[in-house]
Model the fold of this input.
Amino acid sequence: MHKKLPHPTERTERRISAVTSISMCALTVIAQIITTLLLTYFLREKASYVYALLVFIGAILAIRVYQRPGSPSYKLVWMCLLLALPVSGMILFCLWGGTHQAKRLSLRNVPPVPQRESQCMGSEANLSRLKRQSPAWGRLAAYLQKRGFLLYRNTAAKYFGDGTAFFDDLIDHMSHAEIYIFLEYYILAEGQVWDRIFRVLKEKAAAGVEVRIIFDDFGNLTRLSDTTLQAMQDAGIEVEVFNPVHRYVNRIYFNYRDHRKIAVIDGQFAYTGGINIADEYANLIVRFGHWKDSAVRIEGEGAWGFAAQFIQMWKMIGRTLSNEDDYYRPRHDGPEAPGFCQPFTDGPLNNPDNPIEETYLQLIASAKRLLYLTTPYYAVEESMQKTLCIAADAGVDVRLMIPAVPDHKLTYMVAETYWGELLRHGVKIYKYSPGFLHAKSVLVDREVALIGSTNMDYRTFQLHYECGVLLYHMPAVEELLEDLDHTMAESARYTLEEWEQRPWHRRMFASILKLGAIWL
Done:
């Protein structure tokens, strides 16, 4: 039986973040008012000169922001704030606006896991083959390879269009683990799914299999108790919490989260996608109607790409491994399978170089016939919005699939502000009628697919640690297409007329919210 999740715990994490952020903003506005009043009272005729100095300093900071590389939306918001409310703007900029915050999360500067020379040579050979087969996808693969993400062959992929099948497959493969199990998830919540997984992990740890878990603290504030955490440690499972809230609450670092979804088994099997470890992802509890999600399992050489990323994050957090890196490489040859795969990750330490955002732009710009995208959230830079419009104007069949039942209403209202322009240029938008579509995927020309943890919003591209895998000319691309066709069959086509008929107050409020979209 499906059961309804208790309402008070549904939005606790967002409420804490929202209350903290709003409180800080309110306090800085009060500081602005108090500063103005104190200057007027104590300095009288000199107050205007002092305030002019504050405005001048705010303008200098605004110029500094303008000259920095990075997101135009990010820069515009800070420039407006610094110029309009210099006292508030400077306080908030010191807290949230610099590039230093992400580097203060106690993350060590750990280089990527060294790749064997044979692997690098194999990746170069694979790249040459892909360029001959598809020059556009060869360029994309070369871009990612330059950033350290190798291109693999001899890898099979299995696509999952729902959480139930995904968890059954994951648990089955974990039960056959012989060397290690790595799990890195944004949400790891107590419930029926976790009970099944924990039984396997406990059994494997007792048998000598290394079990290591990274989970995000903010994503699990109300989802994972200290009792469960202690039970994991008592079972011999090594657990690390990413960005503990209590450690950084005084510095307001809630924005920087580990949003990845990675599972690796013996270096031979790896999973990624939008699915976290929680009951709603298997529709065992109901939150926002039917929860639609996706994931992929890769088997073979490509699985090492995710194992290496997990190892690097484990070391960045400050933990050590009981064996050398090479110990965790796959012990068996990968299956002979068509196509290529390329696992990759991203995070705020890369800013302003953001491989995930650039990958989306290249996928969109390279589409010739069809481009299907699924995302629960939509708040992108003008460059990506324009690239989508150009693709549709050029005759590409561009389809964007979004939820009909949102989980965060304010974020959903911001997304609406983008849809009118897309619709005018011929982009087809589908709202998933049964409930909440949480899947994150891109399908291009029935040739390439991207599946991962990545949303199409500022948080994914600028603030979160994310992951994904590109599948080039692999059979799983057709599996994704079949699932997307089924998703659209269950969805309602959203029209320009519907968008234009939104109430005026909703339009106005959404436009105001859009100014702060980078923080939603």
Q: What stands out?
A: The CA atoms of residues 372 and 399 lie 5 Å apart.
